[in-house]
Design brief:
68% of the residues lie in helices and 0% in strands. By secondary structure, the chain is mainly α. The longest helix has 31 residues, at 86-116. The protein starts with a helix and ends with a helix.
Length: 120
């Protein structure tokens, strides 16, 4: 167990899916000091902020733009009126889990980038 992985996961546990924490701890423990900078540079989004965007600006797709789903944001912007507000309402329940999944993908990509090149 590394102090870095414990501290990083404690600080970001709310932004990640709980079931992925053990796998992430194992991957973070294997990083060298030089590789940890890649992980620290990962831009994780707040699920709570995404939910607030979804509640107040969901009809405009702002929540999807925030998490990086540009295509769904544009579709939601133009089509949410056609669904009579059901799409934004359903997103209130889905956006936090989706944000955590996006954060997991972002973190895995940064770990992969860090381990791709061995730095000595």
């Amino acid at each position: 167990m590394s102090v870095f992985s414990d501290a990083y996961l404690a600080a970001n546990a709310d932004n990640l899916p709980p079931e992925a924490i053990p796998m992430l701890r194992q991957r973070l423990d294997a990083l060298t000091e030089n590789q940890k900078a890649y992980v620290l540079a990962a831009n994780l989004k707040s699920p709570t902020t995404a939910l607030i965007f979804s509640i107040f600006l969901g009809h405009f797709g702002v929540d999807r733009f925030y998490i990086g789903h540009i295509g769904l944001g544009v579709a939601k912007l133009f089509l949410s009126w056609m669904t009579l507000g059901i799409w934004p309402f359903i997103d209130w329940f889905l956006i936090m889990g989706t944000t955590r999944q996006v954060n997991l993908e972002t973190l895995n990509n940064s770990i992969n980038a860090a381990t791709m090149f061995q730095t000595y």
